[in-house]
Prior knowledge:
Layout: H1 2-17, H2 100-109, E1 166-167, E2 199-200, H3 202-205, H4 225-230
Antiparallel strand pairs: 1-2
The structure holds heme C (4 copies).
One heme C (HEC) binds next to helix 2.
Amino acid sequence: MVTFKRVVQSIAVIVALGSSAFATSNITATKHNLSGTSTGTIKSDAGDNNDEICVYCHTPHAANTAFVGAPLWNKATPSGVFTMYGTTIGGTATDATPNSPSMACLSCHDGVSAINSMVNAPGSGGYVALGANVKFGATAAGSAFVMPAGVTAIGTDLRNDHPVSITYDPSKAGLKATATALTGWAGATTIANLLRNSKVECGSCHDPHEATNGTFLRVANTGSALCIGCHAK
Ligand code: HEC
Ligand code: HEC
Ligand code: HEC
Ligand code: HEC
């Protein structure tokens, strides 16, 4: 409890100082802690070194190098076909498939890929083939655990989601110049910092390690501050 209070206090101090870079990312207390000791509901069973946290997404060795821009990615590339947002009113077309930084999120949020599969399973020497699953909850040992139906299952049809894998073109949709300063955003001081290879991806709006603002958002969306960060509307 004391530790938690201190974390809250230091966050308050950082906010008070008006610092734009959150140095206090704490994935442990978020729904992205899938370790056996997580307080979340979707998590691994204890044992077999499943108490690591980063391993469900990153590995120091044997990473899937198909994920350029999702560093040291520890999951297989989703095998499903994605339906992209398509062409916007401004006439910008999304890419044909999600790029790696978004595909990384979809490797759990597509509702099809196994959340509990890793390239390099936790534990020294526990080197298993692609597709091997660690045990999650009531799932039978070795079988896939996919995102339960609901809002967190983004699915493979991305037509009903804000466009991703789309070029940020400041002449469209009232978008601000990429040099525009951002205040109080996690991991970004300008719009340019939000872009991945000049494009908007899931990580432009979300920081998967940081839940201080709720829903892993880079800035709290009070008064639609997130949307207005990019769109002059
Ligand atoms: C639920 C999945 C997930 C977990 C768990 C996770 N990460 Fe990440 N991480 C990502 C994704 C996705 C990106 C790329 C994000 C982007 O495009 O901004 C990333 C990026 C990073 C980066 C580079 C960009 C940055 O934010 O500095 C570092 C470093 C990193 N992660 C470290 C870690 C460490 C250390 C842990 C464990 C304490 C961890 N991550 C746990 C998904 C995860
Ligand atoms: C290793 C699997 C995994 C990866 C990769 C992953 N997530 Fe998640 N995410 C989860 C799980 C599990 C939950 C909890 C779902 C639930 O409770 O319904 C979750 C929940 C969320 C939530 C809801 C949080 C809340 O407070 O309700 C958001 C937003 C989210 N993820 C965004 C992302 C984004 C963006 C990325 C990529 C940058 C990403 N996730 C990558 C597994 C993952
Ligand atoms: C333009 C900004 C933006 C982008 C890009 C974006 N999201 Fe979100 N996302 C949000 C906001 C804002 C919310 C909170 C919505 C709410 O609370 O009603 C959210 C909520 C979520 C949730 C929680 C479920 C829900 O609907 O509240 C998940 C899961 C999620 N996002 C995953 C993703 C994934 C995966 C991607 C990439 C495919 C992505 N997001 C791209 C802004 C974005
Ligand atoms: C990281 C910057 C960024 C953020 C934050 C952002 N957007 Fe966007 N948005 C874009 C880009 C880029 C486009 C594509 C514009 C184009 O080229 O037509 C876009 C397009 C749109 C469109 C038009 C889609 C079409 O078919 O014409 C809407 C509506 C929209 N965004 C709403 C939102 C809302 C609501 C939020 C907050 C939840 C938000 N945006 C946050 C960058 C962003």
